[in-house]
Amino acid sequence: VFPTYEGYVDQFRQFLKEMSAEGKVFYYGQDSGLKKLINEKNTKSRCIPYNEVELGEDRSISLGTANYNMQLIGSHNYQNMKAAQRICNDLGISGKQFFRAMSAFIGADKRLEFIKNKKDRAVLIDYAHAPSKVEATVKAVKMHWPKRTLIAVLELHTFSSLNKEFIPHYRHAFDPADVAVLYYSPQTLKMKNMPDISYEWLAQQIAHPKLKIFTEKDELVKYLSGVNYKNTNLLMMTSGTFDGFNLSKDGVKV
Q1: Domain harbouring 28, CATH code
Q2: Count of the separate structural domains present in the chain
Q3: What distance in Å separates the CA atoms of residue 96 and residue 186, rounded to the nearest whole number?
Q4: Are residues 141 and 68 in the same domain?
Q5: For residue range 109-159, what is the model confidence (pLDDT) as tens digits?
Q6: Residue 91: inside a domain
Q7: Do 117 and 98 belong together in one domain?
Q8: Domain containing residue 186: CATH number
Q9: Computed from CA positions of residues 202, 204, 205, 209, in that sequence, does the dihedral angle turn out positive or negative?
Q10: Which structural domain range is residue 181 located in?
């Protein structure tokens, strides 16, 4: 959608400028990019920072004598939860009401959604495609299962993710993964009237020691079918479909 990272950031800048004096902006206080935008003082609205929901053991939250067990994984989810809590509190919803409801929330569709979840392995799918979201998602899965091997697969599908000026922002996004896999379709590049991307150039930008790159669905299926998934998690990230890839229909046994 955005040819450059600066163009992406500028949309938030424009949004802040258009906010009215009666409005409120809740923003994640640990994001250096957001703090920089807020410090530009280009908005008339009141700007309110938030951090992250603090969890106890087993992802529990205690309020007074009440205890609520959360079902989500990943720091980014608990950052978003804190934002939702602050807004709900502002609307008159109490902390107990909020966390009682959130304890039943298993997550949005294709947001760290379990396709399979067994004793020593899991398959998850996530809509992540922007660099920061890919990094947060990969980190979340690895932190939740630190002793399992993590294979993180990303489809470069959007205009931004296939843009040579934008791709370098994915550098280090895969660092927590044991194996990084990129998939993109040359046909998608042609349809979007974009130049080809070479394996060598892409590998240099991602800079992961165990990076694999596929441009054909059959090649991806062959690789995933040959993996020993004992004590291993498979994370699939895309805003597309991996050209119609389906774990069961394509015979990938996890």
Answers
A1: 3.40.1190.10
A2: 2
A3: 51
A4: no
A5: 888 999 999 999 999 999 988 898 999 999 999 999 999 999 999 999 888
A6: yes
A7: no
A8: 3.90.190.20
A9: positive
A10: 113-237
Structural domain contains residue 10? no
- Would you say residue 71 lies in a domain? yes
Give me the phi and psi of 153, to 5 degrees please: -115, 130
Confirm if 181 and 212 have CB atoms less than 8 A apart. yes
Strand-pairing partners, residue 40, are none
Q: How far is the CA of 203 from the CAs of 112, 180, 209, 213, in angstroms?
A: 26, 10, 9, 8
Q: How far apart are CA 74 and CA 136, in angstroms?
A: 8
CB distance 215 to 185 below 8 Å: yes
User: Are 51 and 73 in the same domain?
Assistant: yes
**H-type alpha helices, the chain:** 5-18, 32-39, 75-90, 95-102, 131-144, 186-191, 199-206, 217-225
Whether residue 138 contacts residue 174, with contact meaning beta carbons closer than 8 Å, is answered with yes
Reported as a single tens digit per residue, the pLDDT across 54-84 is 888 788 998 888 999 998 988 888 999 999 9
Q: Report how far residue 126's alpha carbon sits from residue 239's, in angstroms, rounded to the nearest whole number.
A: 8
Stated pTM of the model: 0.82
- Does residue 246 sit within a domain? no
Name the β-bridge partners of 151: 179, 234
Say if residue 178 is in the same domain as residue 122. Answer: yes
Same structural domain, 170 and 216:
yes
The β-bridge relationship of strands 113-117 and 179-183 is unpaired
Measured CA to CA, the distance from residue 181 to residue 169 in angstroms comes to: 16
For 35-58, how does the pLDDT look when each residue is reduced to its tens digit (9 = 90+)? 999 999 999 999 999 999 988 878
Please, which pLDDT band fits residue 218 given cuts at 50, 70 and 90? Answer: very high
Alpha carbon distance 176, 238 (integer Å): 18
